[in-house]
Known about the structure:
The protein is α+β, with helices and mostly antiparallel strands and 789 residues long. The protein is built from 23 helices and 21 strands.
Amino acid sequence: MGTRKKVHAFVRVKPTDDFAHEMIKYGDDNKSIDIHIKKDLQKGFVNNKQTDWSFKLDGVLHNASQDLVYETVAKDVVAQALDGYNGTIMCYGQTGAGKTYTMTGTTENYKHRGILPRALQQVFRMIEERPTHAITVRVSYLEIYNESLFDLLSTLPCVGPSVTPMTIVENPQGVFIKGLSVHLTSQEEDAFSLLFEGETNRIIASHTMNKNSSRSHCIFTIYVEAHSRTLSDEKYITSKINLVDLAGSERLKKSGSEGRVLKEATYINKSLSFLEQAIIALGDQKRDHIPFRQCKLTHALKDSLGGNCNMVLLTNIYGEASQLEETLSSLRFASRMKLVTTEPAINEKYDAERMVKNLEKELALLKQELAIHDSLANRTLVNYDPMDEIQIAEINSQVRRYLEGTLDEIDIINLRQIQEVFNQFRVVLSQQEQEVELTLRRKYTLIDKNDFAAISAVQKAGLMDVDGHLVGEPDGQGFGLGVTPFSAKPGKKAKSKKMFKEQLSTSARKEGASSPVGGKDLDFSTSKTQLTPSSKEGDVKDMLMRDRETSSTEPLPLDSPKEELRPPRPSTPPPKPVAFEDFKNERGSEINRIFKENKSILNERRKRASETTQRINAIKREMDMTKEALNFQKSLREKQGEYENKGLMIIDEEEFLLILKLKDLKKQYRTEYQDLRDLKAEIQYCQHLVDQCRHRLLMEFDIWYNESFFIPEDIQVSLKPGSSIRPGMVPISRIVSLGEDDQDKFSQLQQTELPEGPDSISFYNAKVKTEQKHNYLKTMMGFQQAHRK
């Protein structure tokens, strides 16, 4: 397990024109807030009410951008999640203080996106930077509304409405929501689509404090699973990131809530009160019981609040004097949260399938090493595989011959054989005991010595003497088993004994006749019959093979046509777009294939050029930063005084390292710039090839279209191969333009026109798709309602 660490607590102040500068003061290190309230003189001079508070936090964000908030609060938590650590980021505060804006942001402006979409972007970018790992990402979106659980992604076609209500379940692995759908996302755009889909399903309402107030607690969870591509280790890591957007606490006299909104506010305040009770209990080291089950919110966040994860709280507050009472309450909650400790640890699991493969590989290596040792010891080839039925029958035969005395010793080859020899000894012994018992049961009646009723009956019949000895028992030391049959006569004792001995010898001879060797031969014949296919089956297979060869080599009939009959010409020519698709699949397939290949190469070169450009820009920014640092060091050196030795300027180590770094960056910049120039030349050449193929494809299509649908059929005979007219000699009437694909135009437009650059493409694509989907659903619902009317 990892070391215990405290929860990080940050505060974000909502920007306002009416900021209470006299009442709210920030510390010099931006890690503390001091609150001062003037005394109310109307209550008298003797007034012991507290007027000053000081709160120490991990950071205060005032007039901070969304970028700065994410870099300060969430970036490290998300980065550690890909290393196997769970993480939780929670936004808490008064209604209207900016929790949803901080967590989700606005979908209208890419720059104003919140922690959640930025976390998704960081996860997928880090996956691209780790090609040695196969990483899968899944997401879920849970809503807790009026103490009921709802799946915000249940409107997707692949999920559908649930019949049974969702419940919170605990197991040794942690807490999970039974019935909550989890969706696999392979790219950034899919994750944004799921996020926007869930956002449209959230419940909001309006009151005097906030026009778009969230009426529920929402938990967006990112599940990460990473397997190594290079190592054959069966261990893999899993983690999850809980991004919690809590509903805001309300004072009903300020919000003016009524009806349904009032009921929602009651549930919200109640759950936040239970959350604070759980936080107080977690902060008290003497408390044994933590009340997690008081409400659904604390129960669902049990792993996050007191578990093995990195926990960060972001408290949103107002900076206005009118909201100072609620601000104090939120800051108290943040201070209590800082007392809570968690124990982050890497979540390692074992892949059973990969473990089996590793064990099989290790077994094969051990067998190879055994074979090497056997060859070095001049031992014959030894088989270490499990024994089959034939080998077990052979060992059984050897054991029987060893017991009969016909075999002096059993050759020991390996450990498996030793174990099987002892096992066969047990089998033979058990069989002999059963045979002896059956023989005795056929000749004698067995009586239990403890059965007094049977013994008295035997004594009355004269088969047992007064001392309790059986008839024929020498000195009282008999088997305790043999009792002569009631039909036996006293005068025939010696004869019966002689007959018994002869029967034993006869049975022994019978056992020898059916014993080990004969049994072995029988087992061998059975095994051969099972392994070797019958002659009839072999004949059938041979016949099938001959039939196939005959059918494959059989020549076609003489009257069969060598060419496929030409389909009849339609009365009216098909539209050119339809005909063009047919042409690309038939006569123009080769040109179309070359066109697509050149186009794919062109797109690949453009992508590489875009990546190279981004790297050049990054190097340029780093060069500028290094130059600034170097100039600062030079100015500092000039202020402190320069030192010279034999006409050479003496500089410190830090300035020297900056000079070396700048030199290396300039070298990288020149290399990347040369690569970019080469790529641009390749792009120009590939564009020329694509244009040529496009022109050739158009020309060939026009020739084919005219020859197929406008030339009379009697003239088409002369256009066949070997005739005097070549394709292309027929005049062209019209040309169908083959411009760039719509997708190419759209991608180029995005890269040139989007103000935030290519990074925002997936964000806007997901937004557009979600809006189109919901507009379509609204239109269809309108049509259905109009049809019903």
